[in-house]
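Supplementary Methods S3. Complex input for the iron/sulfur cluster-bound model.
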Amino acid sequence: MKVTLFATCLVDMFQSDVGKATVEVLERLGCEIDFPESQVCCGQPAYNSGYVKESKEAMKKMIDTFADAEYVVSPSGSCAYMFHEYQHVFKGDPIWEPKARKLAEKTYELTQFIVDVLKIEDVGARLEGKATYHTSCHMTRLLGVQKAPMILLNHVKGLDFTELPGKEQCCGFGGTFSVKMAQISEQMVDEKVQHVEETEAQYLIGADAGCLMNIGGRINRQGKPIKVMHIAEILNSR
Amino acid sequence: MAMKIGNENFSDRVGKGINNSFMRGAVSGAQDSIGARRLNAVEELGNWEEWRSHGEEIRQHVLENLDYYLEQLSDNIAKRGGHVFFAATPEEANDYIRGVIKKKDAKKVVKSKSMVTEEINLNASLEEIGCEVIETDLGEYILQVDDHDPPSHLVAPALHKNREQVREVFTEKLGYKKSSDPTELAQHAREMLRQDYLTADVGITGCNFAVAETGSFALVTNEGNADLVTSLPQTQITVMGMERLVPTFEELEVLVSMLTRSAVGQKLPSYVTVLTGPREELDVDGPEEFHLVVIDNGRSRILGTEFQSVLQCIRCAACLNACPVYRHVGGHSYGSIYSGPIGAVLSPLLGGYDEYKELPYASTLCGACSEVCPVKIPLHDLLHKHRQVIVEKEGKAPVSEKLLMKAFGLGAASPKLYKWGSKLAPSAMNPFTSDDKISKGPGPLKAWTDIRDFPAPSKERFRDWYKNRDKGGNQS
Ligand code: SF4
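Predicted complex, serialized as structure tokens:
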């Protein structure tokens, strides 16, 4: 199966290990990977801040870049959701709305793709240790992917899993919110870190680079012995 | 109390909220317990999503036909000898109500809980003409006794106070001598209020829902105080926001059930008081004179716009109880009697962007509010729409941000520019980087690194790794 990777700018620039793990897991599951070089940012930071006009050019670029893909897969729930949002942004536009709808129909978040399209629940991963999982808001509520990451994690051998208390609460990232409303964001991420600590997990797992950068950045700042990992890296552990 | 509360700027209000550990304990505790109760109460129905769609339909239908139902309501009230007044502004409403009070030569008013009377600043307006106003809802009563402290929550207005603080207020202002046990506190308030019910000349209520077909009003309470407010005084005035209508009792039943499940996690409230105009010949109690005041105050301006769905709101406060921002900053931080997600959407519409331009940004757009709203208001989408209006129509965004976003538009849309920028990033960030992280960032990064580390850009971008790797050989 041919998969076109939408790596996201955070992964491309800051977390290339997550991108590598995504490629390796998908290849191991029999997919052929394509990474179009012309991909840029999905436009979410500007879009969410209200700069819709400014973000539309980036969106069009992305729609064209992935026009020929059979499946588009992204290791970020929030960015995959953004591709689903394009059709609403271009609502009423005779050219771009249909194109955007097509893109939405074939775009999947990584775990969703593995479970729903590849129909695989056990990727053969192994990792010893105590772990908990952060459910990111956009992926869970807006993209509607709830079960897939749990199904995959439950099959990881050696992983001792504890549910995160208050898991439905946002970590306080929210893109530009994290700097625009820094004082509120700090309180939110602190409560999140406190909940992670309560689980006594060694690993905090997530499926969104943004949330992980936020929670992980706070954990590092406080010097807590918790390792923050993207779910692609977990699924790639053997 | 008008809609606006306090004179401090947004960030000072938020700072104060964050530092108020009493309030935060009370709010997070209430969110956790009410949140769990709400979930049980809606799951027990088995098909909550269908209920939500039905609730949404009812409210949308009313908004689409608002003229018709308001006329029907008004006709039915007039038929029973009641008076109806449509007020475009708070001033018009207050003038009318003052007129009634003066004509009756009323000295004392008892009130049941009503947000819309807070919105128009009714109490102060009546006190100005020498009329004593007494709040009978326990939460509102506490706030009134505490020198008119503003409400911080739609349903539990005194949520920001714990019982120790309530005991202190009662001790200082009312000579209370007992413990901070909630039952004893409530008992004391009831004793103080009993005399007031009997001696009040006028009762004023809000309105949860008006029923157009019969000209009736429903008041939902857990204390039963609305029963007394509407049965003892000779004159009754009901104040309602112009959108708070349902066509018939059938829809009323649906929405009351959704309201109490969403608000407090109960199947039914302890009391639903329904009244229909002034006392008739065979009635044993009820007022002799009845006035309905319908408040517009900017609502008709919202009709027909992209924000219309905000008027579907039934003020259940489920969105406040689910909101992670409200959790940490509390209601007063919003600077409006309407706080939480619904407040962040509604306050700029009713009170203007000048006053409330920060509120739409006080959200991560996490969607927790939209998920719990019983009438399916897309709250996080509306917050996003506000941002768009602020940037594109109102031009109120900071210049530095505008420039940054323009640059973003250029960079993100151009693969060449993006590639070049991301390639340069590691060396540009070099001076700030140690141990693969940035602890003190420049420019906009500073707000981030004041709180948390920022990752240093990867030495090899993903796209370079992908390009260079030997596809057939050892992967990674
Ligand atoms: S917006 Fe929805 S959840 Fe919030 S108070 Fe109104 S009805 Fe309740």
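Residues 182-198 of chain A form the longest helix (17 residues). The domain at 2-116 of chain A is CATH 3.40.50 (Rossmann fold).
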